[in-house]
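Attaching the record inline, Q. Sequence:
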Amino acid sequence: MKRNVLYFRGFLIVLSLLFSVVSANLVYGQDTTPTPTGSTTPTPSPDTTQEVNDLNNKIRDLEGKVSELRTQEKSLSSQISVMDNQIKLTEYRIAYTKEQISELTDDIETATEKISNLEGSLTDITKTMMSRVSATYQLGTVQPLQLLFSSNSFTDFIARANYLRIVQAHDKKLVYNTVQAKNDYANQKEIFEEKKQKVLALQTQLEAYTSQLEQEKVNKKRLLSETQGNEANYQRLLSQARAQLVGFSRFTQSQGGASLLGGQTVCDDWGCYYNQRDSQWGGNSLNGTQYTLASDGCLVTAMAMVYTHFGHRSVTPQTINSNSSNFASYYPAFLNKTIVADGTTASRISSAIDAELSSGRPVIVGISYDGGPIADHFVVLISGSGGNYQMHDPFTPNGNNISFTSKYTVGSIKEIERISI
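Structure, as predicted:
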């Protein structure tokens, strides 16, 4: 009898240990839980990829052609050829950008659909997991002896233990799926935000290309109008523009160079004094050319000062410089006689000095510093008469309201222009 009791106790200990090993594997997972969708990015169709590649090749070819044409000798026909190819290049860039936007939009739609599916999967998995946690918790509170004594037989006990082990294996997979669903959801959200930012950047670029295309078409139309489609007119205008820019550069060199200055702007009842070498804009390219405002922007700066005299205080040299329509189509560094700034048109018209100044209107004069026939610097005369004038000199440091004859002679004046505004 005593031996039977000891044997039974040993049997219970063995079963208890066995059950403990089974229970120790408790984790969460379930085969019936839907598997989350992966986070791969959709692959563009071969046709779309080929079209994008073709556009990219055309863009590279045209960039080379435009660059080559620019190095050729200047003529009206070559200039028109450059413009035609530049227009075509911009059109290709617009088409290329639109294709990129279309591809990314498709990617965004796919990512949005995946996010929606993952949200549903994550919700379902979470509900299932909560249910399984509750059920597993209840099973986990069952002690080995309770399980043993609640079993009808030893075979029944083993079956229940096996069932618990299977449930625990399922719960392990449930935990994995939950974690995977969260990771996939986070990945798709990241893809979505990244693609969205790229689309916004490309849309901005598309707007810039569209504006550029419109401007290029306007420039071609202006070129034909300004030259009247005549080669001789084109060469004459081109020669004048080149001579003026050469004069500007020569004047700057004679004055020691175009080093930048700070703290030059002064505004008063007359308007604003600006210096072309001011660090706010002096280093900027003159309408995208090899020249700068500091070295060759005297006329642009003089016009900006006159604008402020007539109440347009927001106009600066950079305001005028930023509108390419203010410059000649045949020579982009050459300022047109008629320009637009702050929505207002202003034209330079030949005039007399004293009559304008006596009426309170400023005059822009071009002076020849080296004694040649072409003006190589422009200043604004703001008051005075009979050769005794006060000026705003856009090159001289702190050239606000200084004596004209302290720097130049009346005899050096080659151009006199009043401003109609």
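The mean pLDDT is 79. The first strand starts at residue 266 and ends at 267.

More tomorrow.
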